[in-house]
């Protein structure tokens, strides 16, 4: 019988972080024990069973992989969640490939920890965790779906992305029209491709049209084709993208840019799967799966009268939302490692990782261009890198620019000048929230690990009761 809500072992060599995590987990009701090394952790695991092991990747006498491998050999292995700092993300990726159930990037966010533990306990209730066999992995890799899954949109363990993965698998088997919403650069095309590659249409064509890149006349001809003489320059008949995608999938990106007249034609084509080529009178019918995408709020456009309400409801059957990169920051290290490995291989560069300072810049940047911008930044860094590690100097200046840096001396003076105000602000907030650290951290806009470290630095202790 599994202890409720569960028994945990925290393996972390940093004493402050270890005790803070343990205290937090005990407050959540978990039976929690701690260890500071591989050897001690394995000794504890021999003596008693745990449901979940939270283990740092870097340990003084080895690494988290040693603990992971030992756990995998047990008859009823615990769920293993790796904890990693920016500098050890390559080890975390290796651990995931080796069979770790999840990973969390330090400093650990409350929501990420809660979500990961919830999944871990669900796996324990459902049954022992089992890794896929190598044969099964090779079978998967031979499937076209994996080609999409390795794309930028499908790297990460953010709960919103995992929900997106599940929705893709669910809707892929249907013929239902799908609307994908999200900012530019978030990977909407990759999601559309993944739906196609997971469907029974994957053996037929996936046809993409960027509606915003074409004028109304050209878009109409591009989608529906035209007969010879339909307009100046139409010297021969040409089939449109609807016809080319017959039996497969048609992906219409930036559908919000379609003119009112084009929206009328699209409504009929989407609803009835039939249309007439430009200048022609013969009706053509096709078997096409429609996926459309937009970076605009279509509902607002409907209220403003710039987008047809009937078309909106016709395409808004199943809606998938692609989260912006700034809302899935925990995935940035894994994305960075994925792109580094990819471009280093393509360009023949021996680049083994990204150093701590560069990774901090990448993790703190606001990424207005989303994953597409990150891809470009890492490709540039791989090209410019002069050693085995990508460093801060290899990143664009926009990522490294700081608002209040004049010199190291000025920076040190500024830090000193801010110590007392920061301490007073933390104490005032703690008192205002009855010394509740979770509420205090939320009010200050930081996570609880950061709050705990600041309290230690400033010598702030909760009053004795």
Could you describe the 3D structure shown?
The chain has 465 residues and is α/β, with parallel strands linked by helices. The protein folds into four domains: 7-126, 3-Layer(aba) Sandwich (Rossmann fold); 154-321, Rossmann fold (3-Layer(aba) Sandwich); 328-400, Helicase, Ruva Protein, domain 3, CATH 1.10.8.60; 408-458, Orthogonal Bundle (Arc Repressor Mutant, subunit A), CATH 1.10.10. It has helices spanning 15-27, 38-47, 64-72, 89-98, 110-126, 134-141, 144-149, 159-172, 188-198, 216-224, 241-244, 260-272, 298-304, 309-315, 332-347, 356-364, 370-384, 397-400, 408-432, 437-444, 448-458; strands at 7-11, 31-35, 52-56, 58-59, 62-63, 79-84, 102-105, 178-181, 206-210, 249-253, 274-275, 284-285, 289-294, 318-321, 353-354, 389-390. Strands 2-1-3-6-7 form a five-stranded parallel β-sheet, sandwiched between helices. Strands 9-10-13-8-14 form a five-stranded parallel β-sheet. A two-stranded antiparallel ribbon has the order 4-5. The longest helix is centred in the C-terminal third of the chain and has 25 residues, at 408-432. It is elongated and about 85 Å long. 37% of the residues are buried. Mean pLDDT is 80; it is low at 128-153 and 402-417.
Terminal Cα span: 37 Å
Helix proportion: 40-55%
Whole-number mean pLDDT = 80
Please, how many domains? 4
Outline the biggest β-sheet. Answer: 5 strands, parallel
Q: What gross morphology would you assign? A: elongated
Q: Outline the low-pLDDT stretches.
A: 128-153, 402-417
| Radius of gyration from CA coordinates | 27 Å
Q: What order do the strands of the largest sheet run in, or round the barrel if closed?
A: 2-1-3-6-7
How many beta strands in the DSSP annotation? 16
The CATH superfamily of the largest domain is identified as P-loop containing nucleotide triphosphate hydrolases
């Amino acid at each position: 019988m599994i202890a409720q809500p569960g028994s945990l072992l925290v393996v972390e060599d940093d004493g402050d972080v270890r005790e803070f995590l343990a205290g937090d987990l005990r407050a959540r009701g978990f039976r929690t024990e701690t260890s500071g090394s591989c050897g001690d952790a394995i000794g504890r695991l021999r003596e008693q069973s745990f449901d979940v092991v939270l283990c740092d990747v870097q340990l003084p006498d080895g690494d988290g992989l040693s603990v992971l491998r030992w756990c995998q050999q047990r008859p009823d292995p615990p769920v293993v969640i790796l904890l990693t700092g920016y500098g050890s993300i390559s080890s975390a990726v290796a651990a995931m490939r080796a069979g770790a159930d999840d990973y969390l990037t330090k400093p650990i966010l409350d929501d990420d920890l809660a979500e990961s533990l919830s999944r871990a306990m669900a796996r324990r209730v459902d049954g022992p965790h089992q890794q896929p066999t190598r044969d099964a992995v090779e079978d998967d890799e031979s499937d076209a779906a994996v080609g999409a899954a390795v794309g930028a949109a499908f790297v990460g363990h953010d709960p919103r992305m995992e929900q997106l993965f599940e929705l893709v698998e669910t809707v892929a088997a249907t013929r239902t029209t799908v609307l994908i919403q999200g900012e530019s650069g978030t990977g909407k095309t990759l999601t559309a491709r993944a739906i196609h590659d997971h469907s029974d249409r994957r053996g037929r064509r996936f046809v993409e049209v960027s509606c915003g890149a074409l004028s109304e006349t050209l878009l109409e001809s591009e989608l529906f084709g035209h007969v010879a003489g339909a307009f100046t320059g139409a010297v021969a008949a040409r089939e449109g993208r609807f016809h080319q995608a017959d039996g497969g999938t048609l992906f219409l990106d930036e559908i919000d840019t379609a003119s009112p007249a084009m929206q009328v034609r699209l409504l009929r084509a989407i609803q009835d799967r039939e249309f007439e080529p430009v200048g022609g009178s013969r009706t053509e019918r096709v078997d096409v799966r429609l996926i459309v995408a937009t970076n605009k709020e279509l509902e607002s456009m409907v209220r403003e009268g710039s987008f047809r309400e009937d078309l909106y409801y016709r395409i808004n059957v199943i809606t998938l939302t692609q989260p912006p990169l700034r809302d899935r920051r925990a995935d940035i290290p894994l994305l960075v490692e994925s792109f580094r490995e990819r471009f280093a291989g393509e360009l023949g560069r021996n680049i083994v990782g990204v150093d701590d300072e560069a990774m901090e810049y990448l993790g703190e940047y606001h990424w207005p261009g989303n994953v597409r911008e990150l891809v470009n930044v890492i490709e540039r860094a791989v090209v410019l890198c002069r050693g085995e590690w990508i460093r801060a100097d290899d990143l664009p200046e926009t990522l490294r620019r700081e608002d209040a840096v004049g010199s190291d001396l000025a920076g040190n003076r500024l830090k000193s000048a801010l110590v007392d105000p920061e301490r007073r602000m933390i104490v005032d907030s703690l008192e205002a929230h009855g010394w509740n650290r979770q509420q205090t951290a939320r009010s200050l806009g930081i996570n609880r690990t950061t709050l705990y470290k600041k309290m230690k630095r400033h010598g702030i202790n909760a009053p004795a009761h």
